[in-house]
Design brief:
The structure is a single chain. This protein has 306 residues and is mostly helical. It has one domain (32-242, 249-259, 269-299). Helix content is 57%, strand content 8%. It contains 12 helices and 5 strands. The strands form 2 sheets. Strands 3-5-4 form a 3-stranded mixed sheet, with helices on both faces. A two-stranded antiparallel sheet has the order 1-2. The longest helix is centred in the middle third of the chain and has 23 residues, at 180-202. Bound molecules: zinc ion (ZN). The site of zinc ion has 6 residues, from helix 6 and helix 9. Zinc ion binds at residues 171, 175, 224, 229, 232, 273.
Length: 306
């Protein structure tokens, strides 16, 4: 291919005559700088395609509508594809059969007890697997979309009771059936478009497009955000109660994280699960509410809350 571009902006123009460069063009009629006009158009396009590509679905477990762009099957497939990489990053599967069996048992009990009544259909859409990862330093637990849940030995080693294990797993199951990743991904399609727009407009602010896009990406994708964390805690409490676990186990988990997160042990958890201290008060309030009003699992069946 030829390197000669007939439209190249050679400021000298033909015959070396001086032509004004685009930045120095006098403004005519239009009140907004062209670069900002393009940025606004891209932002508008991102908004429109966000609403066209996504749809609002009612979530029977949270009782709330949510905007998603993928099906539950797609979430499951996506999560399964990432299991290998995720396991590798956590030092591989933990070799202790007894510890693996404990994590599997608690996870299965939580799923079985909650795949009932109004929640049965939502739970059955997902494929739950519980992975204990070997890394003793990573104090963390996380869920891929679709039901692949990871628990590090770095966190498990500080837990003392099965209720606490159930607290961690209940919270992560909450992220899965709450479809928090799918929601984030639907939003990030919007954010990807907006980041592009901000990149163009931001050139006037002396930041390069990559910096701005990177910043937005970081802010929007490195954590679920406070609302999703609170909802996962809320669901975790309900799941624990339905499975016969003491929901105060989740408070103990938060205390462990607060203690370990401050030291050298737990930057990962703080990245994905911010402010364990503030969440304890929220969890206490949820426990009280659930004790009075029930877990919501019987909501659609018309049965009184238990
Ligand atoms: Zn979380």
């Amino acid at each position: 291919m030829s390197n000669i571009d007939p439209f190249s902006r050679d400021p000298r123009g033909r015959g070396g005559r001086q032509l004004p460069v685009s930045g120095a063009m006098p403004r005519r009629g239009c009140a907004l700088p062209p670069r900002l006009m393009i940025a606004l158009a891209v932002a508008a396009f991102a908004m429109v395609s966000y609403f066209m590509k996504t749809k609002v679905e009612h979530n029977p477990v949270t009782g709330e509508p949510q905007r998603v762009s993928m099906t539950a099957e797609q979430e499951v497939a996506m999560g399964l594809q990432a299991v290998g990489q995720m396991t590798q990053e956590g030092g591989g599967e933990h070799p202790d059969a007894q510890l693996n069996a404990l994590v599997d048992k608690v996870g299965a009990k939580l799923v079985a007890a909650n795949a009932q009544g109004a929640w049965a259909e939502q739970f059955r859409k997902y494929r739950f697997n519980f992975h204990l990862l070997r890394d003793p330093k990573m104090v963390n637990a996380f869920a891929l979309p679709g039901g692949q849940i990871f628990f590090t030995y770095g966190l498990l080693q500080y837990l003392e009771t099965e209720d606490e294990v159930a607290g961690v797993l209940g919270h992560e199951i909450g992220h899965v059936v709450g479809r928090h990743s799918a929601e984030q991904m639907a939003k990030s399609q919007l954010w990807a478009g907006l980041a592009q727009a901000a990149g163009m407009a931001g050139a006037d602010l002396n930041m390069n497009p990559q910096q701005i896009a990177g910043l937005i990406y970081q802010v929007k994708t490195t954590s679920y955000g406070r609302e999703d964390e609170n909802q996962a805690d809320d669901l975790g409490v309900r799941f624990m109660v339905n499975a016969g676990y003491d929901p105060k186990g989740l408070i103990k988990v938060m205390q462990v994280l607060k203690a370990k997160g401050g030291g050298g042990g737990g930057p990962e958890f703080l990245k994905t699960h911010p402010d364990p201290g503030n969440r304890i008060e929220h969890i206490k309030a949820v426990i009280e509410k659930v004790a009075k009003e029930g877990t919501g699992i019987d909501r659609a069946s018309g049965a009184p809350p238990r």
